[in-house]
Specification:
By secondary structure, this protein is mainly beta. The protein is built from one helix and eleven strands. A hairpin with a 4-residue loop joins β6 and β7.
Length: 166
């Protein structure tokens, strides 16, 4: 319904009432310019991983390259140990949901770890690593990266690590 390049506005009259019957107050108007459709799927193979240091609880930091839905990021990206056991820890986001941080509950060892990516992870437009939001669900998903391996190091190097296609 919206055309790329055209300007639009969305207005909420202050006379509207809130759930409990009180008026909202003053009118609010939001002006915006429509852009083209975003049908680019997230590409985990291009994510940049900052590896934590062995023997610390430093965060593993993943730059996803573009903003993603923060609720989706909270449930769809995990870290597991070399036995496939998910790690307990704290997740946070930064740079407008472009950066995913994970601080483990225990110290990092020198073992291999894996960042796992659920196929239902969504960017802000609803695109998933397995395809664009509006793809035909009867067509098979394209191959996509579903995990990134890393090993904690003595220094924090930022580079893509061990992607696996699915």
């Amino acid at each position: 319904a919206l055309k790329a390049g055209r300007s639009y506005s969305f207005r909420v009259p202050g006379a509207l009432t809130a759930k409990h019957g009180s008026p909202l107050g003053s009118d609010v108007e939001f002006r915006f310019k429509a852009t083209g459709a975003d049908i680019s799927k997230p590409t985990p193979e291009t994510w940049r991983v900052s590896e934590p240091r062995v023997g610390t609880r430093d965060e593993v930091i993943v730059d996803l390259g573009s903003p993603h839905d923060h609720v989706s990021m909270a449930y769809r990206i995990r870290v597991q140990d070399d036995s496939g056991v998910p790690l307990a820890g704290i997740i946070r986001f930064s740079l407008y949901e472009r950066i995913w941080h994970f601080a483990p509950a225990t110290l990092w060892s020198s073992s291999r770890y894996e960042i796992t990516i659920d196929s239902r992870l969504e960017d802000l437009a609803g695109n998933r690593p397995s395809g664009a939001f509006d793809r035909d669900i009867n067509r098979p998903a394209t191959h996509w990266v579903n995990s990134i391996e890393f090993r904690p190091t003595r220094s924090n190097n930022k580079r893509p690590r061990g992607a696996k296609a699915r």
